[in-house]
Amino acid sequence: MNIKEKVINIIIDSINVNASGRLIISKVEDHDKDLKIEKRADYITSPIFVKFFFGGSISGRDILKEISQAHIADDDQLYFVSASFNFIKQDLEDTMFIVPSKEVEKLKDIDFSKFLVSKKDLGSFFINVLDKK
Question: The pTM is what?
Answer without folding.
Answer: 0.82
